[in-house]
Amino acid sequence: MAVSDDIVAFFTAKAGRHPATMIVYRNYVDGPFAMAMQLCKENMELKKNAATA
């Protein structure tokens, strides 16, 4: 994740923008992307628990 954040920071700085002011980007990061990350973490935890059961 840190690498993606670095890429976003590089290009937004180059464009003279700040990610917090980019509404579409924020909606994606705070919406579907956040949900996908939560589901991925939950899935990994379920797999880990199933393997140890």
Q: Can you give a write-up of this model?
A:
- This protein is mostly helical and 53 residues long.
- Helix content is 81%, strand content 0%.
- It has a domain at 23-53.
- The chain has helices at residues 2-14, 23-52.
- The longest helix is centred in the last third of the chain and has 30 residues, at 23-52.
- It is elongated.
- The two termini are 30 Å apart.
- The mean pLDDT is 91.
The backbone outline, from C-alpha atoms, is elongated
Low-pLDDT stretches: none
β-strand percent reads under 5%
Instruction: Count helical runs.
Output: 2
* Distance between the ends: 30 Å
The SS-based structural class is mainly alpha
Mean pLDDT score: 91
How many strands, what sense, and barrel or not for the largest sheet? Answer: none
Order of helices and strands: HH
Radius of gyration: 16 Å
User: How many DSSP E strands?
Assistant: 0
Helical residues, percent? over 70%
What's a quick, concise take on this entry?
The chain has 53 residues and is mainly α. Helices cover 81% and strands 0% of the residues.
Q: Topology, pairings included?
A:
Layout: H1 2-14, H2 23-52
List keywords for this structure.
elongated; 53 residues; mainly alpha
